[in-house]
Design goal:
The protein is α+β, with helices and mostly antiparallel strands and about 130 residues long. Helices cover about 15% and strands about 35% of the residues. Strands 5, 6, 7, 8 and 9 form a 5-stranded mixed β-sheet that branches.
Length: about 130
């Protein structure tokens, strides 16, 4: 049996704000599993918002994107921006929704904690094949 990716950690420094942001962007509420952890089920993988201060650590946003496929890309962009997402500022990424050369229809943003995210229209995900 091949390995299975089952959890991705997103560091946050305000769990209530993270729950509000990801609930709006994902359209699901998820559930709190510890005072500093809130889990959002995303298919067979859990998106885990974790406040590192609960483990004596400091907030360090992820260095690279987390890719999330969604059914309604337009609604997700509106919800993510309204909840505090900022457009990704890299020169090679256009703000807003675009069709990428590799076939994905997507947009890039940062969550309110600086984590880079890419939301992709379900059905256009590029998986390397």
């Amino acid at each position: 049996m091949p390995p299975t990716l089952f959890r991705v950690i997103l560091p946050v420094d305000d769990l209530a704000r993270a729950v509000a942001f990801y609930s709006a962007a994902l359209g699901i509420r998820g559930h709190q599993v510890a005072p500093n952890r809130h889990y959002f089920p995303c298919g067979s993988t859990i998106l885990a918002c974790v406040d590192p201060a609960g483990h004596g650590g400091k907030l360090r946003p992820n260095p690279d994107y987390v890719y999330i496929a969604v059914d309604d890309l337009e609604a997700t962009l509106v919800a993510a921006r309204a909840a505090g997402a900022t457009d990704f500022d890299a020169r090679d990424q256009e703000p807003g929704i675009a069709l990428r050369p590799w076939g994905e229809r997507s947009f890039y943003v940062r969550d309110p904690f600086g984590n880079p995210l890419c939301f992709v229209q379900a059905g256009t995900e590029f998986t390397g094949t």
